[in-house]
């Protein structure tokens, strides 16, 4: 390590106390919720505001209970948002890409199976896809699943598990679920709920030949890769800025400094 860097950090951390690693009692059952995408921003803001209100007004609260209540509130507003989005306002939220239908047509012509799995209700998806692709968008997909309840959809299937749901067919005429048992997944139908195990069983698809694109790491990508071996691709717009930042000279310099500091911390723990 460069002596000048070491002296600089030793000066900065003269009055800092270190807690030896061997004194930390790490618990495997500790749960930490990851809030790491744009969907989490309202949740983080609400958690912060409610917590600040409790603290300022000396209201006792239990953090875990607060988290569950806030999460429930956020989830309860999603169906309301779906109904608020008028089809006439879709251009305000979606940017049309003329290459998208061309790409999907290309996949169809080369005998690739294409599927859509979304947590959104059918009318919401239908309005968006008609704008993005056209009125015949459903002909480009072999399997369409709405209200899939991800990430529960991607959990290992068990009929005794509370999250287990069989596939249901969606009746376009009545805008309701049908009660009949689903044994095959057909191109001309819309399905609801279900599980990835059921999807693979009824389609006969080989897991290691499936590639799935999602936009939420923990809801769309983590379980499906670990449990079923699907190849996954993430559509994360924020990464563009992150990559630019990581490649900047300022960031690289800061990382080098942090690594030097971490080494000093590790050495301090080893000596205690």
UniProtKB/TrEMBL annotation:
Alphabetized GO MF terms: 5'-nucleotidase activity; metal ion binding
A family per Pfam: 5_nucleotid
Keyword Magnesium belongs to the record: yes
Organism lineage string: Eukaryota, Metazoa, Ecdysozoa, Arthropoda, Chelicerata
Name this polypeptide is given: 5'-nucleotidase domain-containing protein-like protein
UniProt keyword list: Hydrolase, Magnesium, Metal-binding
Keyword Signal listed: no
Recorded family membership: Belongs to the 5'(3')-deoxyribonucleotidase family.
Organism encoding this protein: Euroglyphus maynei (Mayne's house dust mite)
């Amino acid at each position: 390590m460069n002596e000048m860097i070491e002296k600089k950090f030793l000066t900065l951390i003269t009055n800092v106390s270190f807690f030896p690693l061997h004194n930390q009692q790490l618990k495997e059952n500790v749960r930490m919720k990851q809030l790491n995408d744009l969907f989490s921003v309202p949740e983080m803001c609400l958690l912060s505001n409610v917590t600040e209100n409790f603290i300022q007004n000396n209201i006792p609260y239990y953090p875990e209970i607060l988290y569950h209540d806030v999460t429930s509130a956020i989830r309860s507003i999603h169906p309301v948002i779906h109904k608020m989005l008028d089809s006439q306002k879709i251009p305000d939220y979606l940017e049309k890409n003329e290459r998208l239908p061309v790409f999907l047509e290309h996949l169809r012509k080369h005998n690739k199976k294409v599927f859509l799995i979304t947590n959104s209700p059918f009318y919401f998806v239908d309005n968006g896809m008609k704008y993005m692709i056209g009125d015949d968008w459903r002909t480009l997909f072999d399997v369409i699943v709405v209200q899939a309840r991800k990430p529960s959809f991607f959990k290992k299937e068990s009929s005794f598990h509370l999250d287990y749901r069989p596939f249901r067919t969606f009746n376009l005429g009545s805008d309701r679920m049908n009660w009949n048992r689903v044994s095959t997944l057909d191109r001309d139908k819309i399905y609801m709920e279900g599980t990835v195990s059921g999807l693979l069983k009824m389609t006969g698809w080989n897991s290691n030949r499936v590639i799935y694109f999602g936009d939420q790491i923990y809801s769309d990508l983590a379980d499906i890769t670990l449990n079923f071996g699907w190849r996954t691709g993430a559509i994360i717009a924020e990464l563009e800025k992150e990559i630019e930042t990581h490649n900047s000279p300022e960031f690289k310099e800061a990382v080098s400094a942090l690594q030097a500091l971490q080494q000093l911390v590790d050495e301090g723990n080893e000596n205690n």
